[in-house]
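pinned: reference chain
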Amino acid sequence: MRKFLLPLLGVAALAAAGTARAQEGNSKNEMPVSPGRILQVYSAVVTRHEVTIKGQKVPYTATAGSLPVWDEDGRPVAGVFYTYYEREDIRDKSGRPLVISFNGGPGTPSVWMEIGYTGPRLLNIDDEGYPVQPFGLRDNPHSILDVADIVYVDPVNTGYSRPVHKDVPGSRFFGVNADIKYLAEWINTFVTRKNRWASPKFLIGESYGTTRVSGLALELQNAHWMYLNGVILVSPTELGIDRNGPLDAALKLPYFAATAWYHKKLPADLQQKELTALLPEVEQFTIQELIPALSRGGSLDVQARNAIAGKIARYSGIAEKVVQENNLNVSFNLFWKELLREQGFTVGRLDSRYKGIDKQNGGSEPDYNAELTAWLQSFTPAINIYLREELKYKTDLKYNMFGKVWPWDNQNNQTGENLRQAIAQNPFLHLLVQSGYYDGACDYFNAKYSMWQMDPGGRLKGRLKWEGYRSGHMMYLRKEDLAAANENLRTFIRESIPAKGQPAKYE
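pinned: its structure tokens
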């Protein structure tokens, strides 16, 4: 084993490995990580822990390490960093689910869901998700580790993942389809090395990670003959599904209504309704009236235009004059700037519950994303503390919260169709979509629309499910939604595993 590993390490890393000892829990066949800014393509540090989930003690190992990405000649071109959580008191892994987790960006690591959502440790924030000090972590009593092992994967140039040298072309990694191809290869390597081929497998992705896992579902089936039980999309992107023109202009209105309701900017009769009672009314108007009206463009007569503008203003909290000035199509940027302009605030893009303060009230878009600065403030110290002090992964490499992945090739994004094909081809494969009502980057009604378009004939609907939460892009940062969303994941995982001996076929 040691002989096989030597070519994968840099010279400086080899020198360090000659004297360094494996950290706590390392097996003799695993390479330790050593300080320095040299990429370690293969490394693994294993530590042992225990967490109480739903009143039950769960012992587990955490492996922080990296595995290679290979080129066509079997040479490593990058090292992909991961953290792998494996429940220790389960001997037979054949029935134990494995969840493979990605975040988005596309240039961000899996830190967000790892210490914010499904992992056994949780960053310190208040009950609504705002930063608190001192920074650090606590146990996550809602983690899904009781029912599934989890691996969090950081794509190249995110977290500690890096190409082996500067001459490796970025086009190998930085594009919709390149990303899917190399990560599918990496998953194959991981599953093989960890002996998890028999396990029921699930992919979960957030934001751009939903584009990633939607494409991976079909790539794993077609190129690696690896069949999944479930795909979970958290705050999904548009998945390459066309919605240009009137659709694009109209579909954001229900999100506008949710945000306006939260900030109490709606008329009294709408404001007094429960959010989940209000939104179906707005959705119906969007589909039945707004899309047809916008489709008519300049042919819409003045009376009809005024009526539509009045309803948009009523549901969005934006003045009718502003709606008219923008031809019935208020942009996201203008909405975030305009809704609370008179109170001197902007609202957040990824989570509209957050408020920001601009240099001046004038203008057509906010100066910054209020929610993202708050999240980076709490997540960045927490993940650096966690990896170094608790998981014992010692390195001087910078942990990239946002890595350089540009230019990113967005051409030929067919990931929504890829996912549809994967579900149709595999009768065992189920889909769960989770959205926050206050997410303006990947809004909830667009997520519904994508799911509808993935099943235009209505024949897959028994395996497709959508859920909404009263928070934003990272809905799990709200304490109440953290508990509910993890419980829903737990249920989805259990229900997506067939009974023993049940065949994968259509009746």
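why pinned: The longest helix spans residues 275-296. The longest strand covers residues 56-70.
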